[in-house]
Amino acid sequence: MNEFFITATDTDAGKTYVARALVTALVNQGKQVAVYKPVSAGCELIDGELVNEDASLLQASANCRQSISQINPIAFAEPIAPHIAAEQLAQQITLPEIMAGYEQVKKVNADVVITEGAGGWRLPLGQGHYLSEFAKQAGHKVILVVNMKLGCLNHAMLTYEAIIADGLECIGWVANCQQDMPYLEENIAHLRQLLPAAFIARLEYCRDIDKAAASIDTSALV
Ligand SMILES: Nc1ncnc2c1ncn2[C@@H]1O[C@H](COP(=O)(O)OP(=O)(O)OP(=O)(O)O)[C@@H](O)[C@H]1O
Ligand SMILES: C[C@H](N)[C@H](N)CCCCCC(=O)O
Ligand SMILES: [Mg+2]
């Protein structure tokens, strides 16, 4: 089983978008693909269950018939930093809970599991822990989504450095070009030189996820 963790330069950078495109590309190659979104904040209450949009979108792209609660075991209603949402409810987000949720996902026996983080690499869980520790404990390979906008060079480099300093492998990065950026080509060219990871995709603004999927080079993932 191949296991990947999607992180990004920031929240709203395109992790879910890239994860959906990647899942779609792998499903189109005939793979069984499962998904995991361990922690979410920003949910709708549907039939008594907190449903996060990322989890629903990932569920719709994947092909392992997972429930929303299996995909996203830790969910908070408010769209805020998850550990603050937990604090407000006098709850704690713990790594064992996140690992236990992942054990359930592994039982699906998929060929590939794509996990989407929340926020950026160093997302706090509270009590001095971070979501990056889950990626490390689970031994995931990391894919970095760079939201192409002014300031992304610094964010991309710092994120890459933190992934490596944590002892994980960053196997690839995606340039997510969802907005106009002056000198976009130059910025991408510099990142290709600066980031020692495979350039997996350049994604333009596009609402058609199948088109985005077709732009992904999955060869670095095998
Ligand atoms: N290349 C793109 N083309 C069109 N829309 C995009 C693209 N990239 C991202 N978006 C849209 O931008 C918004 C933010 O992207 P997304 O939800 O994937 O970010 P995220 O990193 O997953 O955020 P979060 O930290 O909340 O999980 C979404 O509405 C998404 O559909
Ligand atoms: C609500 C938002 N869309 C994400 N789900 C959570 C982003 C948390 C970011 C925390 C931080 O690093 O400041
Ligand atoms: Mg997301």
From TrEMBL:
Catalysed reactions, semicolon-separated: (7R,8S)-7,8-diammoniononanoate + CO2 + ATP = (4R,5S)-dethiobiotin + ADP + phosphate + 3 H(+)
Binding site for Mg(2+): 16, 54, 116
CDD domains on file: DTBS
Record EC number: 6.3.3.3
One Pfam family of this chain: AAA_26
GO function term, MF aspect, one: dethiobiotin synthase activity
GO CC, one annotated term: cytosol
Primary subcellular site in the record, as a coarse category: cytoplasm
PANTHER family: DETHIOBIOTIN SYNTHETASE
Annotated HAMAP family: BioD
Name by which UniProt lists this protein: ATP-dependent dethiobiotin synthetase BioD
Organism listed in the record: Thalassomonas viridans
Lineage summary: Bacteria, Pseudomonadati, Pseudomonadota, Gammaproteobacteria, Alteromonadales
